[in-house]
Amino acid sequence: MAVRIDHPVFDGTTGKGDHGGRRTHIIRILRDSKEALTVEQVAKKVGIPSNAARYHLESLVDSGLATRESQGRTTPGRPRVAYLGTLPNQTHERAQGYRLLAEIMAAGVAQSSTSAGEWMYQIGTEWGRYITCRDESDAPVDESRILERLANKLDALWFAPEVVEGSPVKIVMHNCPFMDSTRRFPQVVCQLHAGMINGSLEEAHSAYRMVHLRVQDAGHRCEGELGKTTARMSKVALDVRLRVAQAA
Known about the structure:
The chain starts with 17 loop residues before the first helix and ends in a 7-residue tail after the last strand. Helix 1 packs across helix 3 (50-62). The chain has helices spanning 18-32, 39-46, 50-62, 93-112, 116-130, 143-156, 179-184, 186-203, and strands at 37-38, 66-71, 80-85, 161-164, 170-173, 208-216, 221-228, 237-241. It contains eight helices and eight strands. The chain is of the alpha+beta class. The strands form two sheets. A five-stranded mixed sheet has the order 4-5-7-6-8. It has a three-stranded antiparallel sheet with strand order 1-3-2.
């Protein structure tokens, strides 16, 4: 079943200018910090004015990607505000709402067709192409650069990815933002994500495709094996090792 997207889409990772890169950088800093960071600390790490850092931080709080807390002072004045990243267990009400919506939709898709996995893979592939900027230059394909760009997109979507060189090359995702839905409907959720990755690789003219995805909630880890292939796939081979989710 062909899937077409005929309207503008912003996925939070497609910004080509300073804004998108700074936001992603701040998300990484918050995620990797063991302690809450103040506006001034973030501004210094990123190399931007405090006002700009505050704007980005408040936007991340509003979208559920960071939390805000007050810190005591040893000198007179208002309490200082500090920020923490929310990966991997986001508690923001808006984030919880989106996860519930994702689970409802995954359940509907899983129950509507015996070929739901193939269908979701094709949808993911189309979205992956759509959110990827095609390089129209005549320069040789730089596979390392393509994988780096893919990792940046997955990072902005909170998959906490890592490209592992070797034979085979792997993309390891240390967080799944939809783990609850994945436990119930891995053929739907995992095939959608695998399709997005392969659609992005295809649009970037990469010779790589994800050919095998190992999914486990122990350690919050998904491991995608990449292979060089020109074959068009209907879905990705899955090795799912998840605890069965219990209905509330």
